[in-house]
Amino acid sequence: MQAVVIVIHLMIVLSMIGVVLLQKSEGGGLGMGGGGGGGFLSSRGTANVLTRTTAFLAMGFFVTSLLLSILAGVNRKPTSIIQNTGPAPASAPVPGAPAPLDQPGGGLLDTLRGGGQPGAPPADGGGAPQVPRSQ
Q1: How far apart are the C-alpha atoms of 74 and 94, rounded to whole Å?
Q2: Phi-psi region of 39 (alpha: psi -120 to 50; beta: other; left: phi over 0)
Q3: Does position 15 have pLDDT exceeding 90, yes or no?
Q4: Is 22 helix (H, G, I), strand (E, B) or coil?
């Protein structure tokens, strides 16, 4: 349904662009407005036809725009970032992936220290920078 309305909307938009470009400019800025010929496409007859066509196309544009906005909001379900329905489910650790930081022995800093446990002393200094001492 929404795709059909979008196609109709685009056809109306393209038609409206064409009709507006056909209209005679007041200042003659485009240099195309004049010319002879009477009857149906006289300057007065053309203005009436083009202004009515523009009005109908504008009305169709507004109707399809409103219809598209209504269709876009039909399936929208409001969500809140404040109301969380509970803690996230715990998943099994993936082999090769780093362990979460809140679990013992799984933090990045513990890995860099060389120890598996957070409270364990680092092995052979752990590669940590040494504080300079005065002599």
Answers
A1: 39
A2: left
A3: yes
A4: helix
